[in-house]
Amino acid sequence: MDYQALYQQKLTTPEKAVKIVNSGDWVDYGWCTNHPVALDRALAARKDELTDVKVRGGVTMWMPEIAKADDAGDHFTWNSWHCSGVDRKIIGKGMGFFAPMRYSELPRFYRENVSVDVAMIQVTPMDSHGNFSYALAASHLADMLDKARVIIVEVNRNMPWVYGLTGCEINIADVDYVVEGDNPAVAQLGGGGEPTDVDRAVAKLIVEQIPNGACLQLGIGGMPNTVGSMIAQSDLKDLGVHTEMYVDGFVDMAMAGKLTGRNKALDKGRQVYAFAAGTQKLYDYVNRNPAVMAAPVDYTNDVRVLAQLDNFISINNAIDMDLFGQINAESAGLKHISGTGGQLDFVMGAYLSKGGKSFICMSSTVTGKDGAVKSRIVPTLTPGSIATDPRSCVQYIVTEHGMINLKGLSTWERAEAIISIADPQFREQLIQDAQKMGIWRRSNK
Q1: Is the full-model pTM beyond 0.85?
Q2: Domains recognised in the chain with CATH numbers
Q3: CA–CA distance from 304 to each of 38, 104, 239, 345 (Å)?
Q4: At a CB cut-off of 8 Å and minimum separation 6, what does 31 contact?
Q5: pLDDT (tens digit, 9 = 90+) per residue, 78-124?
Q6: N or C: where does the chain have the smaller number of CB atoms within 10 Å of the terminal CB?
Q7: pLDDT band with cut points at 50, 70 and 90 for residue 444
């Protein structure tokens, strides 16, 4: 097959390609760094011709052009699988909504539950075999594109080529239109600044629990990043990686010689992940690097896969938690913040792993916009808040005041343990709340 000839036959302009979109269509932008740029701009220019166009995306790194106009919501509706700050702004405009999911199930959603009229994503340039790499996000893209009636790829020369499992590339034969974009720099995600004393205190408690040869999953945020930095500077060795999101902390560990993956029962020697976002350091590291491997999220987050990886260590953040042990990692009351993502997958998967441990970490307090200090440990979750991790699944909880393991504890034991890692200024009130709720029995009375 003459791949170059086929490429030229399908090559068109963004303006011509988006003419395929009709009012009422479901359009998919893919995931995170793969969201289109030139195609998004061209679709936004057609705004006044279109109504009820429903667009899907997730972990949005920049404001889409289709969402910028004051009357954008009269023409487009944004649907996010996982909210970033940009997604929250779109929702705040009244034209965006969140789509709840466990991230591991997303490929199946596309196979069984949702429709896609037009898919448009950024990809790498085509190789000599006619393939485009999904670059930083294998995620659910293969199933999404399989479901699409029309597939448009936007080539970006700055996208890194990432090796991976089946489901990480698409061939020119399966593409309807090719657009050559403006080759923008890949959007970067910073590390969140210098770690705080609280970050360091929490990270220290967790790192002490990690054995040599462990397999790691890190969530996004200051505390998981601090854990990664501490591991890079520690004496730990022969660690592996199997994670949902690949972040700069893993690159730091790799450059420090901590990551060999030699003890992994699956994908030995490879750092496995569903999608990646970080700084240019990360993008340079993963580009055609055989040490890393992209994979669809129904592989990376499958608890049956995680159970086969001994000493699996999962480290994630929380917004707050209650005295029953329910973890909220995605909303502040009715205000949506992020999403379930893969947190519950990894909480469950780590516990199924031989020697595995799941850590949920958070500061014990948060300071509101009004300057008031509030406890992140509350009697019951605020009405509207989402229980990301049910009390029955939670294992280790860590704040700067200590670490507890909730497995096997009754309600009064849980309340006592959880209050022990709350900020001291709130403990007496939490005890009174626990008494009113009928879950208090001081064991050292």
Answers
A1: yes
A2: 3-180 (3.40.1080.10), 197-437 (3.40.1080.20)
A3: 40, 11, 20, 10
A4: 57, 58, 59, 81, 137, 139, 140, 141, 275
A5: 999 999 999 999 999 999 999 999 999 999 999 999 999 999 999 99
A6: C
A7: low
